[in-house]
Amino acid sequence: MIKRNFILILLTVTVGIAIFNSSSSFEETNNISDINNGIEMSSLKKLDSLNIKNIQTDYIVLNLWASWCIPCQNEVDDLIKVSQEKDITVIGILVDDSLSNGIEFISKYKVTYDNILEEQESDIVLSQFSWSGIPTTLLLDKNLIIIHTINGEITSNEIIDLTK
Fold it and tell me: What CATH number corresponds to the domain at position 127?
């Protein structure tokens, strides 16, 4: 009887610790990291679907997304808002999803910024930097150098603050 009660108490404490740790990490909105800082995203110049030479803004936001990703769905309105800023260009990169799902997502959410939807082109870009999941957002300067990497859902205010 004592052994069973001890096991139940131990199990309850373990579950409590697991819940506490998961809720505290869940409340963290983003993880801004410098892991990719300084990498030049020269692969963007090689893409047929994107004419990077015509981009005249001071900053480029690269956002990795998928249609099935709930945080990606949550942040799309903020990315549309950011894309309307005069000094920021937003480019989405479809990851781990089909072209048809990507096109449907863009239509459903009325996405107005450019997106790289072809898997071959996405792979060219993704091979240049480290990422651990979606959404991941990279902030580049006008020379295509990564200055910030953000893992997780992001808001327009957070992106705009990073450009100041």
Answer: 3.40.30.10
